[in-house]
UniProtKB/TrEMBL annotation:
This is S-adenosyl-L-methionine-dependent methyltransferase. Gene3D superfamilies: Vaccinia Virus protein VP39. GO terms for biological process: methylation. InterPro entries: SAM-dependent_MTases_sf. It comes from the Eukaryota. It comes from Melanomma pulvis-pyrius CBS 109.77. Pfam families: Methyltransf_23. GO terms for molecular function: methyltransferase activity.
Length: 254
Protein backbone atom coordinates (compact mmCIF):
# COMPACT_ATOMS: atom_id res chain seq x y z
CA UNK A 1 0.00 0.00 0.00
CA UNK A 2 1.40 3.45 -0.91
CA UNK A 3 1.87 5.91 1.94
CA UNK A 4 -0.84 8.24 0.56
CA UNK A 5 -3.33 5.34 0.40
CA UNK A 6 -2.39 4.35 3.95
CA UNK A 7 -2.93 7.92 5.11
CA UNK A 8 -6.35 8.02 3.43
CA UNK A 9 -7.25 4.72 5.13
CA UNK A 10 -6.10 6.10 8.49
CA UNK A 11 -8.00 9.34 8.09
CA UNK A 12 -11.18 7.48 7.10
CA UNK A 13 -10.83 5.15 10.10
CA UNK A 14 -10.11 7.88 12.64
CA UNK A 15 -12.80 10.21 11.26
CA UNK A 16 -15.30 7.40 11.84
CA UNK A 17 -14.01 6.57 15.32
CA UNK A 18 -13.55 10.17 16.53
CA UNK A 19 -16.91 10.74 18.20
CA UNK A 20 -16.58 7.53 20.28
CA UNK A 21 -12.80 7.73 20.86
CA UNK A 22 -12.83 9.11 24.40
CA UNK A 23 -15.56 6.66 25.49
CA UNK A 24 -13.11 3.76 25.06
CA UNK A 25 -11.61 3.11 28.50
CA UNK A 26 -8.46 1.61 26.97
CA UNK A 27 -7.81 4.83 25.00
CA UNK A 28 -8.13 6.84 28.22
CA UNK A 29 -5.97 4.37 30.16
CA UNK A 30 -3.07 4.40 27.66
CA UNK A 31 -3.10 8.19 27.45
CA UNK A 32 -3.04 8.47 31.25
CA UNK A 33 -0.13 6.01 31.28
CA UNK A 34 1.68 8.03 28.60
CA UNK A 35 1.11 11.23 30.60
CA UNK A 36 2.52 9.63 33.77
CA UNK A 37 5.51 8.28 31.80
CA UNK A 38 6.25 11.73 30.33
CA UNK A 39 6.15 13.22 33.84
CA UNK A 40 8.57 10.52 35.07
CA UNK A 41 11.04 10.72 32.18
CA UNK A 42 11.11 14.40 31.15
CA UNK A 43 13.28 16.29 33.66
CA UNK A 44 11.25 19.55 33.54
CA UNK A 45 8.32 17.81 35.24
CA UNK A 46 10.51 16.64 38.12
CA UNK A 47 12.46 19.89 38.57
CA UNK A 48 9.37 22.12 38.52
CA UNK A 49 10.13 23.96 35.25
CA UNK A 50 7.47 22.28 33.08
CA UNK A 51 5.40 25.51 32.95
CA UNK A 52 8.16 26.92 30.71
CA UNK A 53 7.71 24.22 28.06
CA UNK A 54 6.29 24.81 24.59
CA UNK A 55 5.11 21.40 23.43
CA UNK A 56 4.39 19.96 19.98
CA UNK A 57 2.28 16.78 19.85
CA UNK A 58 2.24 14.58 16.75
CA UNK A 59 -1.04 12.68 16.25
CA UNK A 60 -2.90 14.47 19.05
CA UNK A 61 -6.23 12.93 18.03
CA UNK A 62 -9.10 14.09 20.24
CA UNK A 63 -6.60 15.50 22.74
CA UNK A 64 -6.64 12.89 25.51
CA UNK A 65 -2.92 13.39 26.18
CA UNK A 66 -2.93 17.07 25.14
CA UNK A 67 -5.54 18.14 27.69
CA UNK A 68 -3.72 16.20 30.44
CA UNK A 69 -0.44 17.94 29.61
CA UNK A 70 -1.73 21.46 28.93
CA UNK A 71 -2.18 22.60 32.57
CA UNK A 72 1.45 21.63 33.29
CA UNK A 73 3.14 23.38 30.34
CA UNK A 74 3.26 26.85 28.78
CA UNK A 75 1.70 25.89 25.44
CA UNK A 76 0.80 22.86 23.36
CA UNK A 77 0.31 22.67 19.59
CA UNK A 78 -1.26 19.41 18.47
CA UNK A 79 -1.12 18.16 14.90
CA UNK A 80 -3.19 15.44 13.32
CA UNK A 81 -4.23 14.40 9.82
CA UNK A 82 -7.81 13.29 10.64
CA UNK A 83 -10.29 16.17 10.59
CA UNK A 84 -12.83 14.21 12.69
CA UNK A 85 -10.33 13.78 15.52
CA UNK A 86 -9.55 17.51 15.35
CA UNK A 87 -13.27 18.38 15.46
CA UNK A 88 -13.46 16.45 18.76
CA UNK A 89 -10.32 18.25 20.00
CA UNK A 90 -11.77 21.64 19.05
CA UNK A 91 -15.11 20.87 20.72
CA UNK A 92 -13.20 20.32 23.97
CA UNK A 93 -11.36 23.62 23.55
CA UNK A 94 -14.71 25.34 22.93
CA UNK A 95 -16.12 23.87 26.15
CA UNK A 96 -13.32 25.34 28.30
CA UNK A 97 -14.26 28.20 30.63
CA UNK A 98 -12.21 30.62 28.51
CA UNK A 99 -11.51 29.13 25.04
CA UNK A 100 -9.99 32.39 23.77
CA UNK A 101 -7.19 32.16 26.33
CA UNK A 102 -6.57 28.39 26.09
CA UNK A 103 -2.87 27.45 25.96
CA UNK A 104 -3.47 24.65 23.47
CA UNK A 105 -4.76 24.29 19.91
CA UNK A 106 -4.57 21.76 17.11
CA UNK A 107 -4.02 21.90 13.36
CA UNK A 108 -4.65 19.52 10.48
CA UNK A 109 -1.25 18.85 9.00
CA UNK A 110 1.06 16.05 7.94
CA UNK A 111 4.27 17.27 9.52
CA UNK A 112 7.10 17.24 7.01
CA UNK A 113 8.99 20.40 7.88
CA UNK A 114 9.59 22.43 11.02
CA UNK A 115 8.66 25.68 9.25
CA UNK A 116 5.23 24.35 8.21
CA UNK A 117 2.90 27.37 8.01
CA UNK A 118 0.14 25.68 10.04
CA UNK A 119 2.47 24.86 12.92
CA UNK A 120 4.07 28.30 12.78
CA UNK A 121 0.62 29.94 12.70
CA UNK A 122 -0.62 27.90 15.67
CA UNK A 123 2.50 28.63 17.74
CA UNK A 124 2.21 32.35 16.89
CA UNK A 125 -1.48 32.41 17.87
CA UNK A 126 -0.72 30.86 21.28
CA UNK A 127 2.17 33.29 21.79
CA UNK A 128 -0.15 36.23 21.03
CA UNK A 129 -2.71 34.88 23.51
CA UNK A 130 -0.14 34.93 26.29
CA UNK A 131 0.78 38.50 25.45
CA UNK A 132 3.95 38.09 23.40
CA UNK A 133 4.35 40.55 20.58
CA UNK A 134 6.51 39.69 17.59
CA UNK A 135 8.86 36.78 17.11
CA UNK A 136 11.76 37.14 14.71
CA UNK A 137 12.78 33.52 14.18
CA UNK A 138 10.51 30.57 13.34
CA UNK A 139 8.89 28.98 16.40
CA UNK A 140 10.63 25.94 17.84
CA UNK A 141 9.56 23.67 20.73
CA UNK A 142 11.02 22.48 24.05
CA UNK A 143 9.35 19.08 23.92
CA UNK A 144 7.81 16.90 21.21
CA UNK A 145 5.44 14.17 22.38
CA UNK A 146 3.43 11.59 20.47
CA UNK A 147 1.33 8.70 21.70
CA UNK A 148 0.15 5.67 19.70
CA UNK A 149 0.98 7.38 16.40
CA UNK A 150 4.48 6.18 15.42
CA UNK A 151 3.03 2.89 14.16
CA UNK A 152 1.19 4.92 11.48
CA UNK A 153 4.27 6.80 10.24
CA UNK A 154 5.67 5.56 6.88
CA UNK A 155 9.27 6.75 7.33
CA UNK A 156 10.52 6.92 10.91
CA UNK A 157 13.94 8.42 9.98
CA UNK A 158 12.16 11.22 8.04
CA UNK A 159 9.84 11.94 10.96
CA UNK A 160 12.68 11.99 13.51
CA UNK A 161 14.69 14.34 11.27
CA UNK A 162 11.70 16.72 11.12
CA UNK A 163 11.14 16.52 14.89
CA UNK A 164 14.83 17.33 15.46
CA UNK A 165 14.36 20.51 13.41
CA UNK A 166 11.17 21.37 15.36
CA UNK A 167 13.13 21.52 18.64
CA UNK A 168 14.98 24.37 20.29
CA UNK A 169 18.56 23.55 21.29
CA UNK A 170 18.24 21.49 24.47
CA UNK A 171 14.70 20.41 23.49
CA UNK A 172 13.61 16.80 23.95
CA UNK A 173 11.43 14.11 22.41
CA UNK A 174 9.29 11.75 24.52
CA UNK A 175 7.40 9.46 22.13
CA UNK A 176 5.29 6.53 23.31
CA UNK A 177 3.86 3.61 21.35
CA UNK A 178 3.35 -0.12 21.78
CA UNK A 179 6.32 -2.41 21.28
CA UNK A 180 6.74 -4.77 18.37
CA UNK A 181 7.78 -7.79 20.41
CA UNK A 182 7.21 -10.19 17.51
CA UNK A 183 4.19 -11.73 15.75
CA UNK A 184 2.23 -11.69 19.02
CA UNK A 185 2.09 -7.88 18.75
CA UNK A 186 -0.04 -8.08 15.57
CA UNK A 187 -3.37 -8.70 17.38
CA UNK A 188 -3.07 -5.28 19.07
CA UNK A 189 -5.27 -4.13 16.19
CA UNK A 190 -8.28 -6.24 15.23
CA UNK A 191 -8.12 -7.32 11.57
CA UNK A 192 -10.58 -4.67 10.40
CA UNK A 193 -8.34 -1.87 11.76
CA UNK A 194 -5.03 -3.04 10.26
CA UNK A 195 -5.34 -1.19 6.93
CA UNK A 196 -3.09 1.87 7.16
CA UNK A 197 -1.05 0.49 10.07
CA UNK A 198 2.55 0.81 8.87
CA UNK A 199 4.07 -1.45 11.51
CA UNK A 200 2.81 -3.58 14.37
CA UNK A 201 4.44 -1.52 17.09
CA UNK A 202 7.92 -0.05 17.37
CA UNK A 203 11.15 -1.99 17.87
CA UNK A 204 13.42 -0.93 20.72
CA UNK A 205 16.79 -1.40 18.98
CA UNK A 206 15.53 0.10 15.72
CA UNK A 207 14.25 3.22 17.51
CA UNK A 208 17.56 3.65 19.39
CA UNK A 209 19.45 3.44 16.09
CA UNK A 210 17.16 5.92 14.30
CA UNK A 211 17.08 8.47 17.14
CA UNK A 212 20.83 8.19 17.60
CA UNK A 213 21.41 8.44 13.84
CA UNK A 214 19.29 11.61 13.70
CA UNK A 215 21.79 13.33 15.98
CA UNK A 216 19.97 13.28 19.32
CA UNK A 217 21.90 12.97 22.59
CA UNK A 218 20.83 11.16 25.75
CA UNK A 219 19.03 8.53 23.65
CA UNK A 220 17.00 6.02 25.64
CA UNK A 221 14.21 3.69 24.61
CA UNK A 222 12.64 1.90 27.56
CA UNK A 223 9.51 0.06 28.55
CA UNK A 224 7.33 2.69 30.23
CA UNK A 225 4.17 0.72 31.02
CA UNK A 226 2.10 -2.28 30.04
CA UNK A 227 -1.48 -2.25 28.71
CA UNK A 228 -3.74 -5.27 29.27
CA UNK A 229 -6.31 -5.45 26.55
CA UNK A 230 -8.80 -7.87 25.04
CA UNK A 231 -7.90 -9.16 21.55
CA UNK A 232 -10.23 -10.92 19.13
CA UNK A 233 -10.20 -14.60 18.19
CA UNK A 234 -7.92 -15.24 15.20
CA UNK A 235 -6.00 -18.08 13.53
CA UNK A 236 -7.45 -20.72 15.84
CA UNK A 237 -6.69 -18.72 18.99
CA UNK A 238 -9.61 -17.65 21.17
CA UNK A 239 -10.49 -14.10 22.16
CA UNK A 240 -8.25 -13.37 25.13
CA UNK A 241 -6.66 -10.70 27.26
CA UNK A 242 -3.05 -9.88 26.34
CA UNK A 243 -0.34 -7.67 27.78
CA UNK A 244 1.18 -5.09 25.42
CA UNK A 245 4.40 -3.36 26.52
CA UNK A 246 4.69 0.33 25.62
CA UNK A 247 8.05 1.98 24.92
CA UNK A 248 9.05 5.57 25.58
CA UNK A 249 11.60 6.97 23.09
CA UNK A 250 13.76 9.75 24.50
CA UNK A 251 16.42 12.03 23.12
CA UNK A 252 17.72 15.56 23.47
CA UNK A 253 18.82 18.02 20.79
CA UNK A 254 22.10 19.61 21.83
C1 LIG B 1 -4.21 5.70 17.48
S1 LIG B 1 -4.60 7.38 17.25
C2 LIG B 1 -3.96 8.11 18.73
C3 LIG B 1 -4.56 9.45 19.03
C4 LIG B 1 -4.10 10.04 20.37
N1 LIG B 1 -2.67 10.23 20.41
C5 LIG B 1 -4.56 9.14 21.49
O1 LIG B 1 -3.73 8.35 21.97
O2 LIG B 1 -5.74 9.21 21.86
C6 LIG B 1 -3.40 7.89 16.04
C7 LIG B 1 -3.61 9.32 15.59
O3 LIG B 1 -2.53 9.69 14.74
C8 LIG B 1 -3.05 10.41 13.63
N2 LIG B 1 -2.07 10.26 12.55
C9 LIG B 1 -1.81 9.19 11.78
N3 LIG B 1 -0.79 9.45 10.95
C10 LIG B 1 -0.40 10.72 11.20
C11 LIG B 1 0.61 11.57 10.68
N4 LIG B 1 1.44 11.16 9.72
N5 LIG B 1 0.71 12.83 11.17
C12 LIG B 1 -0.11 13.26 12.15
N6 LIG B 1 -1.09 12.49 12.70
C13 LIG B 1 -1.22 11.24 12.22
C14 LIG B 1 -4.40 9.78 13.37
O4 LIG B 1 -5.25 10.62 12.64
C15 LIG B 1 -4.89 9.53 14.80
O5 LIG B 1 -5.59 10.63 15.32
Amino acid sequence: MSSSTALEANNARFNTEASEWDANKKHVETCNNAFEAIKRYVPAFADGSSKELDVLEIGCGTGLLSFALAPHVRSLVGVDTASGMLDAFNAKVASLASPASANLCAVNVLVQEADDVHIQGAAAALATRRGESGHDAPYRFDLVVSHLTLHHIPSMPDLLATLFQCLKPGGRIALTDYEDFGPEAVPFHPKKKREGVERHGIKKDEMVEIIDGTGFNEVRVEQAFVLRKEVEAEDGKPAREMEFPFLICLGQRS
